[in-house]
Amino acid sequence: MTDPxxxxxxxxxxxxxxxxxxxxxxxxxxxDLLQQAGxxxxxxxxxxxxxxxxxxxxxxxxxxxxxxTGHIDVVPLGTREWSHAPFAGExxxxxxxxxxxxxxxxxxxxxxxxxxAEAHRMVxxxxxxxxxxxxxxxxxxxxxxxxxxxxxxxxxALVVAEPTANMPYVGHKGALWLRGIARGxxxxxxxxxxxxxAVYKAARATTRLSCFHFDVDPHxxxxxxxxxxxxxxxxxxxNSVPDRAVIEIDLRTIPGMDHADLRQxxxxxxxxxxxxxxxxxxxxxWTSPQxxxxxxxxxxxxxxxxxxxxxxxxxxxxxxxxxxxxxxxAPTLILGPGEPGxxxxxxxxxxxxxxxxxxxxxxxxxxxxxxxxxxxxx
Length: 378
Prior knowledge:
There is one protein chain. The chain has 9 helices and 15 strands. It has about 375 residues and is α+β, with helices and mostly antiparallel strands. The chain has 2 domains: about 5-170 and about 285-375, Aminopeptidase (3-Layer(aba) Sandwich), CATH 3.40.630.10; about 175-280, Alpha-Beta Plaits. Strands 1-2-6-3-7-14 form a 6-stranded mixed beta sheet. It has a 4-stranded antiparallel beta sheet with strand order 10-11-9-12.
């Protein structure tokens, strides 16, 4: 069996910082490993030196395949100096250090190793699929490319190996990122009356957004939707009236909210001549914890970690926003070995034991899926 700790270290060694990504070599290495275990593999390109990987083995039963997904791109290193080399995969005191160790190459290693170890179960009537994406960190670009190229199956269930410390998360909010553009007329800074200041327009719009009210009740688990103005850019030089200003708005939504209606409400609320563009439009993900497969997976995770289940959801979005609709609305869990608080951090690390736990959890999930598919064919 391929060792998940060794594989995590190998994956960390691939510099897949996004941008620019360069995930193709990493995807090829995983494809080779999976091919040796009998998987059919397919690369879906995402530009120069970039690729997603889809791997399948077996033939699906009535429920469809059990699908695992994760991304191999990682965020930039930041400006702070690292104490541990970011691409060395150094192990110290039971922790693997390196960019992507928690988010989420430890999770990728665990799903691949589990799939390889349980490959013998994948026969007629039982299929496992792995969707390994590039470009997730910049807005699920790789998952979008996979859908555009044609995803050739629906799922029975989906596991997203994002960092949860092996605690099952039943969903996450949607994300609607908007760009508001204010336009004015430039003039000399000593004669502002001759111009039309775009920064003032954007500032008034931003102030109004601070009072925006979502006309929806909070979700019982995901909570209330949120709004944050994350950036404000305007003007080129101090002694000119700025003729352009841009704000970027991060909206996190809950089930039942229509993003087109929300965008219109935001536009009206700003009460300015603001052009509004959509940068990212990703629906939320939610599966009832009472769904039978979810219930059983929660039990498996609790047995392996020794932690009682608590109803949790992720604060981040994931490729599930893109994949779940394309996979037929499959029940979905977010469950991976990474530490959520380590994502995007300097000296990022993932606990060795968490990766080993996750591999065992995924193996049991595959084994039980195979047993149930076998029962359904008898």
